[in-house]
Model the fold of this input.
Amino acid sequence: MLKGIDPLLNARVLGALRAMGHGDDLIIADANFPAESISKQTVLGYPLHIDASATDVARAVLSLYPLDSFVDDAAARMEVVGRPDEITDVQREVQSEIDNAEGKSWPLVGIERYAFYERAKKAFCVIQTSERRFYGCFAFRKGVIAPEA
Done:
């Protein structure tokens, strides 16, 4: 345990978050996501695991992880197949965590399922959660921390 660091963030996750640079993607995936096969194509090469909901994992990650303010898709969600405008409960909850972490309303853009898989393959890493609700899959692009912060 460390002061000021969410206990959900294990050593492997902390190492990956620290190693990531500006513009790298992090995937937070639900329990149904093909994390093992997708992760083999990521920079890290294997999935990370946090046994918690996608909402709790997003909250923990965003307590340390800056979102990229230079792009429009720094926070993205997997769209519901056949209903791309539908926002699920887990997506609403993660949207709230993003807004809280950033201190303002932040767009959570939709990405079609197979396009999301392609983005995930190019990510730095995938964190698979124990989220059982469908469409609990998110992509966060890392931003920067200003020198004065």
Q: What stands out?
A: The radius of gyration is 14 Å. Residues 58 and 94 are 7 Å apart (CA to CA). The chain has a mean pLDDT of 97. Helices lie at 11-19, 35-39, 54-62, 89-102, 113-121.
